[in-house]
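Title: Request for sanity check on RDH11 dehydrogenase prediction

Description:
We are preparing a figure and want to confirm that the structure record we downloaded matches what your pipeline produces today. Could someone re-run it with the sequence below and paste the raw structure tokens into this thread? We only need the token string, no images.
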Amino acid sequence: AGIGKCVATDLARRNARTILACRSRERGQAAVEEIRAATGNPAVVLRLLDTGSLASVRAFASAVLREEPRLDVLVNNAGVTGLPFAITSEGLEQTFATNYLGPFLLTNLLLG
């Protein structure tokens, strides 16, 4: 939704293979179908990613590096705010993990 969906739509409109990295399979698939319909680009795909989970970030990065011949643009747009204090299963504060640590790790893993 929001800025991320607008950026993905613009990239797809420019004929880019576009990977939507979403926590929710249901919402992500709905966005994929909407973007495909709006742009006519069938190369819009969904991959599940929760930036609040470093294990999820590592699995996502590993799959992208294995499956994609190249990566030209990365847009880190995920974020949360206003959540009650919570600790992830990895012992990290949820907001800090989601908004900073996850995207930082993802970027570094994808740089190769």
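Thanks, this matches our download. The first helix runs from residue 2 to 13.
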